Amino acid sequence: MSTAIVNPDFATALQTYKPVLGFEVHVELSTKSKMFCGCPTDFGAAPNTHVCPTCVGLPGSLPVVNQAAVEATIKIGLALNCEIAAWCRFARKNYFYPDMPKDYQISQYDEPLCSNGYLDVDVVDESGEHHTVRVEIERVHMEEDTGKLLHTGGDTGRIQGADYSLVDYNRAGVPLIEIVTKTIEGTGELAPEVGKAYVTQLRELVRSLGVSDVRMEQGSLRCDANVSLMRQDATEWGTRTETKNVNSLRSVERAIRSEIIRQASVLDAGGTITQETRHFQETTGDTTSGREKSDAEDYRYFPEPDLIPIAADPEWVEQLRAGLPEAPGLRVARLQQEWELTDFEMASIVNSDALDLVVATVEAGADHTSARKWWLGELTRIANNDSVALDSLAITPAQVARVAALVDEGALNDKLARKVIEGVLAGEGEPDEVVASRGLAVVSDDGPLIAAIDDAIAANPDVVAKITGGKPAAAGVIVGSVMKATRGQADAGRVRELLFAKLGVTE
Amino acid sequence: MTSPTSLTPDEVAHLAGLARMSLTDSELARYAGQLDQILHAVDRVGEVAADDVPPMSHPQPLVNVWRKDEVTPGLTAEQVLAGAPAAEDERFRVPRILDGE
Prior knowledge:
The complex is a heterodimer. By secondary structure, chain A is an alpha+beta fold. In chain A, 38% of the residues lie in helices and 18% in strands.
């Protein structure tokens, strides 16, 4: 493989090449028990405590399908406008890797439970214009998750250079749904945004069905992004790479963008793209070559002899279809109308992954304007800073609603409210407790304010002259110095009122 | 059903590689012959199965044998690791996965 000698930026790459995308998204179902045995599925248990002879592949054990997992898969398929197979089988995917104790994974091969669907994805471009991109779904199939490897020795806990590895099979056999798109062409410079919007909206859809908690940071939703480039005048697809380790919505966008730039630089230099698995590196935003599986993929699939075929009763399928919740797209449209928001404002909420949080905050009594302000502003900033998902911050919608109410009542100003949020996140208790323990209430007693105003007036005779001379805008200086004197705990509006009353001018 | 062509030592070497088996050249040649005989024997099914008989994966005409989504007791870490050749920190210890590098 040749190394890049030119490094085109994204726009230049797009002048020469058309990106072609494809996605494989794995969703861990939130069933109580595993796909083929009765072991629990909870995340974070002590190693090798959610195991039994079936999921560690001991001789003589037999798998039995979890009906709830089949039902959840059908729901996902229906929500994605798929056909549901009248009859289908499981298949064995054979490979040796320590994360699979049986040396094969039970999956589905040429007979997926759901196929030929689509998801209409709403993508907003830089100028705020909306585009609907239909992402066609090839298949949705059932399989089982693998165990977790911990690489020991070597420098960074990576498989390269490790001396040996440790395996925890708690996750082995957890129901896993793979959602595979057809090839997505024609997205052009919107490719990274289309990728992010697809995964975001797919996740909203699956979450709305209540079949998975779809937490990317915990791995219950995982995305592999396939990217290839073709010259603008070409008719055939180029060689694709598959990027794994894309663990956040933002990373989907970054990974596609950087892979487009990397492939363009290789092609521009006269090189060829190697078909390979690559890994997204969160810290650099680049993808690096995987080289984990040196064997050509030869899984020797065959029908799983230990499992009986699935034949979903059409009546059951129709019952499930009738019970599907409001589609997230329709819900977004409904809320946008209720809240009278612009397309851009609504898209900001969805893309920040804040919709459920804003809705819950509104339900807890806040108005949507302050709910949006806190979740999209201060809380998003903190979440990004700490690289955690917005909904894993240690503050509830009810607590945010309480902070908003305190601001509305005039008990807090924005600056103090941010400190209250800081306190809640630090585990100091409910907003009111933080207000009390940190002494954060706005100074509402006029006495100290009037004293501070008198001091400020005395210290700024020139400013006072301007205000009384017809320039009320100059009052900012006085208000600022009063705020400073009260260490930010005054209500700026009240300070203004008192100042103007004192000087006998009207605003 | 296609009639089997002869299995070559190269194909046996590929399968041996997938099965993580190390075979000598003479073993490859010997097993190619033996496997070839087995494949031919199995292929005789094709002589009696007409086109209207679909390939069968399961002998019983059953569908939808499944269980309720209920947690059942399993093994403890101690029990499951009892048969492991090596264990560390309540986990199975396996040899280095990637060679070299």
